[in-house]
Amino acid sequence: MNLIDGKATAARIREELKEKAALLTAKGVQPGLAVVLIGDDPASRSYVTAKERACDEMGLYSRDIRKPAETTEEELLSLIDELNSDDAIHGILIQLPLPSHIDSDRVIERIIPTKDVDGFHPVSVGKMMLGQETFLPCTPHGIIKLLEEKNIETSGAEVVVVGRSNIVGKPIANMLLQKCHPGNSTVTICHTGTKDLISHTKRADIIIAAAGRPDTITADMVKEGAVIIDVGVNRVPDDTKKRGYRLVGDVDFEGLKEKASYITPVPGGVGPMTITMLLYNTVLSAERRSNNAL
Q1: I want to staple 31 with a disulfide (CB 3.0 to 4.6 A). Which of 64, 147, 266, 286 is the partner?
Q2: Cα(first)–Cα(last) distance of the chain, in Å?
Q3: Domains along the chain?
Q4: Among residues 95, 115, 116, 250, which one is catalytic?
Q5: Distance CA 36, CA 92 (A)
Q6: What is the reported pLDDT for 69?
Q7: Beta carbons of 119 and 134 less than 8 angstroms apart
Q8: Which residues of 198-223 are buried (b: 16+ CB within 10 A; e: fewer)?
Q9: What is the mean pLDDT of residues 106-129?
Q10: Model pTM score
């Protein structure tokens, strides 16, 4: 078993981004990220704080905008319009989920594609599907970087993605389908409607688990030497922990760690890559702005 250390990979990429950000800032284009949080969800608040801290450490300009849960959809759309036209901002992130009275699709579509550093805008998704240059969604892009880091062969590989969300499952499947490196894989997407999950996972060279449920993938479901990418982050009760719970992924790590050739831990695997790739996209957006200004 080889552990895929997301923390180490993220740290290396951040050092590279820090150097790029410094060069851009010296040219008068400091990469800027605006993060908008509506409401006071504890998990979202913690995530936003982590993004701000990462920006500060890397020399990026960070604008933290927090609004009450009662904020109307029109007020949020108006705020996005302001950020779209602000030259100091190269990336806009609206923290999801939004309150139920706000249409998330309408909000995402309001962000101009050149500042869509989350990679969720329909234009970004369409370009990704076509294999064109665009901002790639952060968690799937982070997975691609982890596969690259370990030189894991994807060309011709049987990949099974468990989960079909718009944030992880669908985009990572598409990215690995592309005729490029990493990619060129034969991809199967499994989900709650899949009748015989084990028949798919048993033949997989690479399994990407993004189902949002502990122990979705167990040792009996995996062939010897498979690569396991665990995207899940689940809280399970644990009285031995001060906080009363522990974090686990979607796979049985203890059961799989000796059977897999490579495996990501939770925490410390895919998680650190998500924010890192958000910063990657923000710096890339600033680079494009700088080049266009020349």
Answers
A1: 286
A2: 49
A3: 28-114 (3.40.50.10860), 138-271 (3.40.50.720)
A4: 95
A5: 8
A6: 96
A7: yes
A8: eebbeebbbbbbbbeebebbeeebbe
A9: 97
A10: 0.95
